[in-house]
Design brief:
Shape: rod-shaped
Helix content: 40-55%
Structural class: alpha+beta
Number of domains: 2
Strand order of the largest sheet: 4-3-2-1-5
Radius of gyration: 27 Å
């Protein structure tokens, strides 16, 4: 009895209007489009910019690591970077840990 009333109220039978089901998908498509432009696209741009920064690293660049260590690149390998952080202190770390280049005005 309850299932027949639910079926009758839902209108999901053979005589249902296909345009109504397409109209119900429009809000989901709009939400996806908004998420794409507000979340996904900016994240992809940031990742592309970070890859470009890592590819353009060279000896002598002043950088900041993702853990907050400031240093100067003294050696570059394919996957590693050696940072000089003090006169006699060098760290070897993965290239991906470089967060950004330091500006000249930062000391």
């Amino acid at each position: 009895m309850l299932t027949s009333m639910a079926w009758a109220q839902g209108g999901g039978g053979a005589g249902s209007d296909p345009s109504a089901s397409l109209l119900s998908l429009i809000p989901f498509l709009l939400i996806f489009i908004i998420f794409y432009f507000l979340l996904i696209l900016p994240q992809q741009r940031r990742q592309k910019k970070q890859r470009e920064v890592l590819a353009a690293l060279k000896k002598g660049d002043k950088v900041v690591t993702s853990s907050g260590i400031w240093g100067t690149i003294s050696n570059l390998d394919k996957e590693t970077v050696t940072l000089q952080i003090a006169d006699n202190t060098k760290l070897k770390m993965q290239r991906d840990n470089i967060a950004r280049l330091r500006g000249d005005d930062e000391s």
